[in-house]
Amino acid sequence: MKPACAVAIAVGHASLSAAAAAAWPAPIQALEQQGYEILGRFDGPSGMAGYAALRLGRPQTLYLTPDGKYAIAGTMTDGGGENWNQAGVDQRFSDAMWEQLQGSAWIADGSRTAERVVYLFTDPNCPYCRQLWRDARPWVRSGKVQLRHILIGILQADSRGKAAAILADADPARALARHEGGADTRPLGQPPAAVEARLDANHRLMERLGAFATPAIYYRAADGSLQKAQGAPGAAALPKILGPR
After folding, report:
1. Which of 62, 77, 143, 193 is close enough to 51 for a disulfide, judged by CB 3.0 to 4.6 Å?
2. pLDDT digits (tens, 9 = 90+) for 6-23
3. Tell me, what DSSP letter sits at residue 156?
4. Other C-beta atoms within 10 Å of 203: how many?
5. Do 156 and 112 belong to one domain?
6. What is the pTM of this model?
7. Residue 224, Ramachandran bin (φ over 0: left; ψ between -120 and 50: alpha; else beta)
8. Sheet harboring 37-43: ordered strands across?
9. At a CB cut-off of 8 Å and minimum separation 6, what does 229 contact?
């Protein structure tokens, strides 16, 4: 098992805007009320509309009948026993979840022109996050990889205050580098409301993506699919996540 810091997240699901939710057909809205989070729509087989969704952190596919009256949760299977357009559906999920990561309150670590981007959920009190930060230095310093740290603060009582202090710093990237490099960060007692909102949103995103330990790492494979790793990767796994050294 990879070394990781287990976390317990107890926050509500972030829903789409009221306008977006109201645009879904009634059966899809009904499934939203049952806990499905709708990520987006795509064209399904035989005139049906498909919807990429998450439920309890797991990808789920929904289909709406052409008359708009019924929704079906699950995969569509053809006469040969194959799932309909599985590669396309998987790519849709990858793209939708990658967009959510891109829209989070991340701190860049590395060149903005790096060929490879890796997202990771980081708690200031997670020793394995700090280990990964150190292990990734050759890739980051070479300009090949940009790490994007999505800060959370739930491992210890002062985790949130430390995460807030880093986010509220005039130079969050430098503050994060100081902290992960070994200097401790003084917790911020009364974070600005905007910083609190960013931390809350990061917590909700971690929950939606089904992550339960830090560091939780997300990266794109060569085929564009979204890959996930939890815990500090060993030396053999680093090139898979960060690419060639």
Report:
1. 62
2. 655 443 333 333 444 558
3. S
4. 23
5. yes
6. 0.80
7. left
8. 37-43, 49-55, 58-64, 71-73
9. 2, 216, 217, 219, 237, 241
